Every structure is written in C-alpha cells, then in structure tokens.
C-alpha cells in the first residue's frame, strides 16, 4: 500500500513532450495566477452571486490547505522526478491543485446544474489531479487527500443556506468572524504562519465589505450585450493585473511587517474585485445597474 501511495516510478515511462504540454496546461488551472483572474472575471461578466460565493470558498479552501500542509509537513516526491519547479520548498500533503480544482469546478457545476457542465468540470478536475502526478509535484496520497478535503469543504458549503449573511446580518458579525479566525490561525499555527494566510483573511474581509456596499449602492448586473460583457472582462483583467503590480510596488516601499502588509494587500484586492471595478465598469456602461445578477451564459440555479 505504501508503494502505491508514494512511489511514482510508474509515471516515467508515460512521459512525452506532447503529454508534458497537456499536463502543464492542466496544472496551470490550479495556480494562483489563474484563480486570481478567473474568479473576478466571473464575478464581473457572468454571475456575481455565484462567483462571490466561489471567492469565499476558494479563500477558505486555500487557508485549510496551508494549515494541513504545515501540520503534516509531508515532503513532496524526489526532486529528480519533479517537472514543476514552481512549488518551491512547500510540503506536499494535501495537494492544493487537486483541492482547488475540486472546489472550483465542482462548485460551478453544482450551481449551474447542467449535465454537460458537470461532465466538463469533472474532466478538468481529473486532468488537474493527474497532471500533479505526471509532473511528480505530488504522490497519490497527496492527490487523494486533496480531493477528499475539497469534497468535504464543498459538502459543508452546500449545506450553508444563509448566503445572505453578508447582506442581512450586522456587518460586524461576518467581518468580526473573519478577523477572529485570522488572528487565531496566525497565533495557533503549527510553526510560523505563511504570509499568504493573513492575505486570505484580508481578502475575505475586503470582499465581504465590498460586496455588501456594492449591493446597497450600485447593485450591478450583466443584462447587457455579450460584447459588452466580453469587453468588461478584458478591461477588468488588465486593470486587476495593473492593480496587483501597483500593490507590489507600494509594498516594497512601506515599512510594514510582512503579515500586516499581506492582510492589507488582501483587503485591497477584495475591495477592488467586489466594489471598485464593478463601479468603474458600470460608469463605462459595460455593466447594467440595479438589474439583478442572473444573466449568465448558462442558467445558474439558485443556491440557498
């Protein structure tokens, strides 16, 4: 059993230049670069309710993955087998790519609730998971635990009915819970908490605040021509990339401790995604105002 879960010698005969390109393509879908672009684009140009929920789910899942990695401290496969040099010295268990793939694509399938979409999302999940084995960034145990953790997280979120918490409850409640969870996780972390942990917390707080304010003031919708949604996505993605570059430049100049700066960075990103960019796109008449949220390419079922 140990050999089955940890030995990747069987991968070597399968490798070829063509399959390596395919594996790198699938594995890119699990990196932060893709996630940080895909979720805002979906929120601005597809369905803001679905992608706000997804943003919360991804942030929580990333926090859980970091916690489990530092708790188990399980090493990755040997360097001589590895074909993904972007993982650095991070631990392997559970596989973050697999966990995020399950959370992202199966949650979208759960909300869209179309058979063809379930099939497409399932293939992507499988492709991302297998790519981590092919590239020897993880062993079988890492991938299985990542898939299980992602699945459990999905089940818990699917049971949460009151998604209106950010809208109806006293704003101090969800924001206070996010801040409390962040402070507790940094204080009780096994060893020193990674700098991206406070970023996740800041992102949750900023996104929650921005979403609440946006719903009460702008309340944008995507009931516009397809070309306008496409243009909104392009402009939004370029602006978001420039915004992140600006944050990086500012962070290099501010005399703040990394943990504090990452929290502030996450807060700024959350506000930009859920409030600032929607306001800009409405002003540009690329999104509608006070028009609801469910004009999507595919019918999205209500959850909660």
From TrEMBL:
Keyword Transmembrane carried by entry: yes
Limits of the Phosphatidic acid phosphatase type 2/haloperoxidase domain: 52-158
Transmembrane segments: 25-44, 51-68, 88-108, 115-137, 143-160, 172-190, 196-213, 225-243, 263-282
InterPro entries, per database record: PAP2/HPO, PAP2/HPO_sf
Reactions the enzyme catalyzes: di-trans,octa-cis-undecaprenyl diphosphate + H2O = di-trans,octa-cis-undecaprenyl phosphate + phosphate + H(+)
Organism: Pseudomonas schmalbachii
Database matches in PANTHER family: AT30094P, SPHINGOSINE-1-PHOSPHATE PHOSPHOHYDROLASE
UniProt KW keywords: Membrane, Transmembrane, Transmembrane helix
Official protein name in the record: undecaprenyl-diphosphate phosphatase
Enzyme Commission identifier(s): 3.6.1.27
